[in-house]
Amino acid sequence: MRRLASRSALAVASLVVAVALAACTGGSTPILTGIPSATASPSPSASPDPSTSLAPLTDAELLALLPPDAAYPDVRGAIETAIFFVAQFPIVYETGDLQVWDALSMPECIFCQSVRGNVRAETAVGDHEIGGKMTVDRDSIVANYYDVDGYWYVTFHYSQNPSFTQHADGKTEPSGDGGTGSTSLRMAPIDGIWKVCDVGVEPD
């Protein structure tokens, strides 16, 4: 899995947020993203991707999996959904299950597409990741409405544990040292559920 930024395949601008959570209004700096790096093609003899055999989650099913406060239509919902989404990062690499990830990701989210492609490539060759747990510093959370584009931006510091790749042959090798950094998620309420429209990452 390596670090969060390594798997994002993004070129990210510095995370600059003009106001603190107490204000919750005003301008912010949009996230700048690049093009995801190419992912490996699935092997013809590989096991099927478990996420492709599962039906997409309904809105009711998704809400049942989210933290209760994620259902709020205001900034509280955006914050809790953003934290929950970042916590899914190591989970999808470990399980190969992209149902929740896909349900929360908007099609324009380049970061989300990159993670999806990497997870499917690893699953296709029988690999999966272990470790890499994400921890959010709640004291660092800033939420800001950018009235130029109409999105909410939720920014916070994170720390990530080291991770390892478990290969199909049973061998395990280190894949990431972990570390700390900042991430900013561009959020929008879609049909009553907060969705992730893009993600920017800046490692420390």
Topology readout:
Layout: H1 4-8, H2 59-65, H3 75-95, H4 99-104, H5 110-124, E1 128-131, E2 134-146, E3 151-160, E4 163-166, E5 172-176, E6 179-190, E7 193-203
Antiparallel strand pairs: 1-4, 2-3, 3-6, 4-5, 6-7
Description:
The protein has 204 residues and is an alpha+beta fold. Helix content is 26%, strand content 29%. The strands form two sheets. The protein has a four-stranded antiparallel beta sheet. The chain is globular, with a radius of gyration of 17 Å. 37% of the residues are buried.
How would you summarize what this structure contains?
The protein has one domain (4-203): Nuclear Transport Factor 2, Chain: A (Roll), CATH 3.10.450. The chain is of the alpha+beta class and 204 residues long.
> How is the largest sheet built, in terms of strand order?
2-3-6-7
The helicity comes to 25-40%
- Give the overall form: globular
- State the total count of DSSP E strands: 7
Can you give the mean pLDDT? Answer: 81
Unreliable stretches (pLDDT < 50, length at least 5) are: 6-49
Q: What is the rounded distance between the termini?
A: 17 Å
Pairing-aware structural class of the strands and helices? alpha+beta
Cα-atom Rg, whole angstroms?
17 Å
* Major β-sheet annotation: 4 strands, antiparallel
The top level CATH class name: Alpha Beta
User: What oligomeric assembly is this protein in?
Assistant: single chain
Looking at the structure, the CATH topology is Nuclear Transport Factor 2, Chain: A
What pattern of helices and strands is seen along the backbone? HHHHHEEEEEEE
